[in-house]
Please model this.
Amino acid sequence: MRSKTFKFVALTAGLVVSPLALASGDAPSLLVGTCISCHGPAGSSVGPANPSIAGIMENDDFVESMQDYRDDKVPSTIMGRIARGYSDDDFKAMAEYFGGQELVRAEQAFDAKLAKKGKKIHNKYCEKKCHEDNGYDNKKGVLAGQWMPYLEYALADFHDGSRKTSKEREKAGDGKMEKKMKKMLDKKGVEGLESLVHFYGSQTKSK
Ligand code: HEC
Model:
C-alpha cells in the first residue's frame, strides 16, 4: 500500500535525518544516525550512562577509541558490539562529525565538598601535561562536564586494571595515566576517585 510505505519512509526520515539536520548541515547522517540515539543529536548525550562524545577528543584518538572497541582492546558494555559494523573510514567520518560539535554540559547534582577535594587532586595528579585547563582541554580527553555515572564506570575500569592505556598510546607518552592513578589511589584511596568525579561533574561552563 502506497500510503503505508510513505508513512514508513517519512517516519524513518524523521527519526534519522531531522535531528542531524538541526545539528549540522553536512553530517554523515546515515553513519551517525545510530550513534545519536545514545549519544545525543550532536554528541551531547542526555543520559548519565551514555557519555557525551561531542568535541571530547582529537579525531585520531576518536578513531583509535572506536578501533579499540571493535578489536576488544577496551572493555565496554555496548560499544564493542556497535563498533564491529564499521570500517576505519567510517570511524574517520564519525570522528570528524562529533569532533566538530560543541559539548553541551548539563547541570548535575554534585557534592561541593567532594568537588573541592577533587579539584586539588586533579591539579596534583591529572592536570599537568594531560587533562589540562581543569579537564576542559581535549588533547587527552575532556573530563570537565562529562556525565558522572559514566566517569565513575570508566575510572573503576582503570582502577581494577580492566581498562588500560593501549600500547600505541603508551608509545606516545600516555602510559603515565596508570602510574599517576596508582599514586593517587595509594594516597587518597577510592574517595579520591569519587572526589574527581564530583569535581568534573561540577563543571558546566561552555567553551
Ligand atoms: C546503545 C547505545 C549506544 C550507541 C547506539 C552508541 N554508543 Fe557509543 N557509547 C555507549 C556507551 C554506554 C559507552 C561507554 C562504553 C560502553 O560501556 O560501551 C559509549 C562510549 C563511546 C565512546 C567513548 C567515549 C569516551 O569517553 O572514551 C565513543 C567515542 C563512542 N561511544 C562513539 C560512538 C559512535 C561513533 C557511535 C555510532 C556508531 C556510538 N558510539 C553508538 C553507548 C552507545
The first helix runs from residue 2 to 16.
